[in-house]
Recover the amino acids of this structure.
């Protein structure tokens, strides 16, 4: 598939490291996710008071997206979002289940329950950046570059978006990984399956 669109920028969060375009911009080794992600939020001067109330999946997606979108010049409804993972909202689902499994201490928390859908992280990103765009969250067994490519290309070619934020954001207990990239109609890195896969594996 010949593309006329480009990967404008990409971010990773994994192994207690935040990277932008392949370059580490924050690292905090030998800490659990909760400590690491809060420290990264403060270091990167991200300003969004609801961040500390989010579940872990949303914190991961939000920070990886914010790195790419904070300097975006697109109009508010021009950036679509396509995210994916393998664990859905399983980490939060476990917390919710534990709050209702004991009949004697039954207390389902609305603050936890609201995050028992994986696409809620898209909502947090959209609120922060004023997006009213098309968005979807898909569950795959593994990172699926083909699907992300085809969906993003369709949105751009049909003028449903001027940019598309795509990627993989997975969180299951202390196993986590985020890879997001921004597709635009201009740039240096052509938007192909091979290039998406290469950047994902960096």
């Amino acid at each position: 598939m010949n593309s006329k669109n480009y990967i404008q920028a990409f971010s990773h969060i994994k192994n207690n490291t935040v990277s932008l375009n392949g370059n580490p911009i924050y690292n905090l080794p030998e800490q659990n996710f909760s400590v690491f992600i809060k420290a990264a939020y403060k270091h990167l001067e991200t300003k969004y008071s609801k961040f500390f109330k989010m579940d872990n999946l949303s914190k991961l997606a939000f920070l990886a997206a914010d790195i790419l979108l904070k300097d975006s010049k697109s109009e508010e409804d021009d950036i679509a979002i396509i995210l994916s993972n393998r664990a859905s909202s399983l980490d939060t689902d476990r917390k919710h289940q534990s709050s209702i499994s004991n009949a004697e201490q039954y207390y389902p928390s609305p603050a936890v329950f609201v995050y028992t859908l994986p696409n809620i992280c898209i909502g947090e990103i959209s609120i922060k950046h004023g997006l009213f765009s098309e968005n979807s969250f898909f569950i795959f067994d593994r990172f699926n570059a083909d699907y992300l490519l085809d969906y993003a290309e369709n949105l751009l070619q049909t003028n449903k978006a001027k940019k598309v934020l795509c990627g993989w954001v997975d969180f299951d207990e202390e196993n986590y990984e985020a890879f997001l990239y921004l597709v635009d109609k201009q740039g240096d890195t052509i938007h192909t399956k091979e290039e998406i896969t290469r950047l994902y594996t960096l």
